[in-house]
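Pasting two entries for a bug report.
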Amino acid sequence: PDTSTFATVSRAKEWLSTCTKHHGDCLVPARTELPSRVLVVSNHKVILRETKGEIGRYVALSHCWGRNPVVRTLRANIRDHKENIPWPALSKTFQDAIILTWRLGFHYLWIDSLCIIQDDPDDWAEQASRMAQVFSNAQLTIAASRAADGAGGCFTRYASEPFTLVETDGQVRAVTDPGAWAAFVPAPATTDRDGATRRLRIGPQIEHGLTRAPLLQRAWVLQEQVLSPRLLHFACGELYWECVSHVACECRGWERRAETLQSETRLRKAHGRLVELRHRHRRGGGLAATAMAAKAAEPLERSKDFEAYRTLVEQYMDLDITNDADRLPALSGITFGRPHDEYLAGMWRSMLIESLHWSPSRRGAERRAYRPATYRAPSWSWASIEGHITHVQDFAASSYRSDDNAKPKATVIAVSCTPEGIDVRGRIKGGYLRIRGPIEEATVSKVRAAGANDRAGADTCAELVGKHGHIHGTCLLDVPLVSARGESAEVKKSGRVLCLQISTSAALVLKSIASPPGSYTRVGILITDEQTTHAWFTHSRSEAVFIS
């Protein structure tokens, strides 16, 4: 199929019209305040406009920057861009998005690289803080899902390998010649009554067309997809529609109500929890908002809230990001919705003890965890690590049940994060946690690569010896082995550490640092059973510890 044809555009118009007129959950104001800057588009012409509070309708573009440079608005060329952005200077993805915007009947398009002054830190911070409004208020988000960079474009002409249609049990299965893989297709009438098969070419199914799409592997895109009420995916060989109420594909083989897909493995692989999160955002005002927000103190609802946010963080940290410093800003748009809570380096104050139970994960880890060279977050936050993240399951799953033995054992005395700019959910330049709990000193007897029998999933473990001898449990280190001598970048054999119990089955592993005096940095987490922690911490003194 050719996704640049007028038939494809007509199909997109049909989806958009149906959604606008009939989908109550997808309502977007017919006219809203435009972003600070938009592109004014016509057929093969585009200029940049400062909107100054203008009201109108606009489309947003979600795309991969990739390795190839894309045209950007800079302090040196913004005046020129307000006069004209030369068509040849635009990438194919930008050109396709402009053409599509025009064909759909819109005059305004928002593209991040052109609507944000890329070499102005103040403008970048201000516009990044408004990302939630940009995508939430867009009439439509065009997702260049198939393109790894600007050269890939939106439109494509695709020819799949040949298939044979075979009818089995009243269903039609498309099978490749060698039988490499098969997919059910919604066209039983295409099989002859005598059982003969006919040859044809069909596009890939959702698991091939969207699951592996380059755009969906990018960290910035998660919030764009959660916040957008309507998405038009240009995938490999086919167009996909997704809104709060409905999902569909160009071949009409994948049409149903959005909520019916929440339990399907294929959609979870392609989008994670996007359908659920989009519902919550449109109905409740943000990622962490729930229908029970007013009852945040209720144990069960707090547990559910943490479970949802924890899952999001784990999935988010599986996504790629080009600039390590963008990890918190790229999530900021979907961290609204808890007006009486405090957001701290990727964590919520009301759920801080639970949130400390994170560890780097081996799960599917193509890359090993590391602390970015440039400061990104205090050591107690998962945002201080770049890599896959997991949370201690036994605590998180039942954190507030009175009959459960995984209960908080520490108390937060004070906590603070200092933002780098105006966005408190964006980049930060400092932070600390003052926490009180049972403490015990220990010595590192061995640092080793984690094995299959170790709990959770870090790359590197340490064996600890305390006052009562060897500590049974798994000490998961935040940074993996870096030498054949069995040393971690942060923890060495015979080194002294401080263990601070935070729950019945877990303790933070801390290392003393010189600045500020008397403070510690997190280097790992110790996971044990109730019997071990009871024996080790029962008679321990409780102290307040400063962690930076």
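Entry 2 (this is the one that rendered wrong in the viewer):
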Amino acid sequence: MAGILPELASECEAKRDRLIKDITNVDRSSVIPDHYDKATSILELVDQAKSEHDRASFIRRMITTEEQFSADTNK
């Protein structure tokens, strides 16, 4: 049975991409009138996007390491 790590990494990357779009939308939006609130909102979204990016990167490294380990043990 295949693991779910590749799918999980893809989901993290998709969430990151959606957050990046949200950041752009908040930046362009005039709905948030107070500059500080807008900056705070953007920084919170940036933190979330960075977290998802880090998760996806870590999972991808795990997959690569596991594949390399499997290849070495099958020699």
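Dev reply: Rendering is fixed now. As a check, the viewer should reflect this: The chain has one domain: 5-69.
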